[in-house]
């Protein structure tokens, strides 16, 4: 009886590995996507969130590290007319596995001459670590991030920290 159970387990494992090999196994790439929007602080809260406008041509980057904190991949994409970007990353670079959880996505630039101050609303300024894919289907693994925002220069908060250079030091 135990031998039959063991044979069934071995056969199931073999079939699973054969099916993965036939289907191509794990996906070779993963995708990261999201939007870049302009916030106007002159609008009310509802308009501020729901009335945000896409910024075409904004640059978003992804930096992936290895376990020793060395960069193994850097990539970027520019947003389209809807303010959307989609970065495709190979799961292997120079023989090393790129682990999504060791990747950080951040806003790099905004070509909008009026709306070009990065905010950390959505963590675009400091960067977002990839956590869980939003989509896993056959050979597609995608991480969809919340929008990154830029704002107008007049909306930028001034630095009011007490540790400003030249002030308060003896």
Automatic annotation (TrEMBL):
Origin: domain of life: Eukaryota
Signal sequence range: 1-23
GO cellular component: cell periphery
Pfam entry (one): Pollen_Ole_e_1
Keyword annotations of the record: Signal
Xref: PANTHER family: OS01G0164075 PROTEIN, POLLEN OLE E 1 ALLERGEN AND EXTENSIN FAMILY PROTEIN
Protein name: Pistil-specific extensin-like protein
Source organism of this protein record: Tripterygium wilfordii
